[in-house]
Design a protein that fits this description.
alpha+beta, CBS-domain, three-stranded mixed sheet, two-stranded antiparallel ribbon, elongated, EC 1.1.1.205, Diverse_CBS-Domain, CBS domain, IMP dehydrogenase activity, CBS_dom
């Protein structure tokens, strides 16, 4: 299974903010959209990603104010991306080795979606269910 197959099921919605937004504004959008990470895209270019983990570690634990801190102060700028044609096994390995939970999907330098570890796990479980059903069918014939 490929990243594109996940996106065709979950959708290709991409939510983004600017690095000049406050962390509070970013969290508000994340809450409204029910997402765990948001991309920072400026002039069509992916500049970074901000996750709930970044907020917890860089704002809450350091007793900073999310209304006074800006996204550019805590966002991750080394963003690992995948392409629509990448296989799930590659995504899982990348997420595991780089310790990230979200991967923007980029095609021709344009963000066309984002997948999470949850999306990948769900897809793998569905693939395994199909394989088990196929094997059961084969055995009982």
């Amino acid at each position: 299974m490929t990243v594109n197959q996940i996106l065709s099921t979950k959708g290709k919605d991409v939510f983004s903010i600017l690095s000049t937004n406050t962390v509070f504004e970013a969290l508000t959008v994340m809450s409204e959209k029910n997402i765990g990470a948001i991309l920072i895209i400026e002039e069509g270019v992916l500049k970074g990603i901000l996750s709930e983990r970044d907020y917890a570690r860089k704002i809450v634990l350091k007793s900073k104010s999310s209304k006074k801190a800006f996204v550019h102060e805590i966002m991750v700028t080394e963003v690992f991306t995948v392409s629509p044609s990448d296989k799930l096994e590659f995504c899982m390995e990348l997420m595991s080795t780089k310790r990230v939970r979200h991967l923007p999907v980029v095609e021709n330098d344009v963000v066309v979606g984002i997948i999470s570890i949850s999306d990948v796990v769900k897809a793998i479980i569905e693939m395994q269910k199909e394989t088990i059903a196929h094997l059961n069918s084969y055995i009982t014939q």
